[in-house]
Amino acid sequence: MANKLNIPRHVPTPIExxxxxxxxxNTNHENDIVNIEIDKLIPYPNQRFRxxxxxxxxxxxxxxxxxxxxxxxxxxxxxxxPDYYEILAGRNRTNASKLCGKKEVPCLxxxxxxxxxxxxxxxxxxxxxxxxxxxxxxxxxxxQLEALEELGTNCPSVSKIADENNTNRxxxxxxxxxxxxxxxxxxxxxxxxxxxxxxxxxxFCSVEDQRVLLEFTNLNEIxxxxxxxxxxxxxxxxxxNVSLETIDKVFFKEKIEKPKAIKLSSQKVIELIPVDVDxxxxxxxxxxxxxxxxxxxxxx
Length: 300
What we know:
By secondary structure, the protein is an alpha/beta fold. The protein contains 14 helices and 5 strands.
């Protein structure tokens, strides 16, 4: 029986997610919010979370025109550029505000180190968004794990991540495995060509074997890799036997040709068969006779 997940009724805002991460409750940050010029805001580097599409951004910009920015952007002072700030949560709010002509956005300036900055980036995305791609979820968990290991925790990091995201340890481990895939294969997981469970199997293959698989999928326009196929590919990799030829056999086993259908005029056949014999036996005996006669003629 599957475990019932404890899904929160309320999706936390970026500020609430930050407070939860630090174990703080009901903190009033209203007096800490300041307006900062958009041109002085720099996105957090090397994150895998997608930005809004053009259509989504335009829709968000229209909403901001009417309602303003309802939740402040979370930032921290940039370590290398004085008077500039690094966006930890709120890239889309910032971009949408700029699109609708705003020069400033409300911001909450956080004094956090690199590990806590990672947690702010990941927690706000994982807690607020419900349309995450497998790659985003996978690298979100990986960033959380790295941050918790840097901070040091009293409980196993994977368990804490599972608790933070209202899920189970099995799911966390499964998605962490996806970060072992090369980018091209991870894109196929996002595109649903490779199901998550198949991606987990493939993640145990070497990088070189994964490259061969990616080449094969591109050459043959593969649109699905089943669990059984992924298990076979993983076994090939464990045996150091991955090649375009061996993978081909996993996907395209020799097709057994079906016997050709034979169409005969029943009236013509019945006219040649005696009344008191079994029709099928008579036809088979006749075919054997003529086959043997043909062989005897060839030998002569």
